[in-house]
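tool_call: predict_structure(chain=1)
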Amino acid sequence: MKDRFAGNKLNKLNDLVCSDEKLLKAFKGIYTDCLKKLGSALFKGRSPVGMSLPVRIFEPVSLIERIGNWWTLYPHYFGLAVKTNDHLERFKLVMSSIIGGMHMGISQWKPFNPLLGETF
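tool_result:
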């Protein structure tokens, strides 16, 4: 498993701050580009709903693959939850599966959404 927090560091206030120069360079100018596209669409009388994001902010992972990563721990914890008769213990195991997999979905890059036709 790759380190999900690589390229980040904690500042003096214990906030997670991006320190990856490649990532910062890729994201530089995103707001300006999006505002230009939005202004152009509105000026031409088109709806901003169909506005596309710059490809440089996408990661080569689809949203479906990321969701699969979130559910990595489900088989283990749900298997244990099925075998227990204690309702509180079953609740704890189900919540552990949900919370335990959240770190697998952390990324600053936007995943492609194949349901919308986005591909790498």
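agent: The chain has one domain: 8-116. Proceeding to next step.
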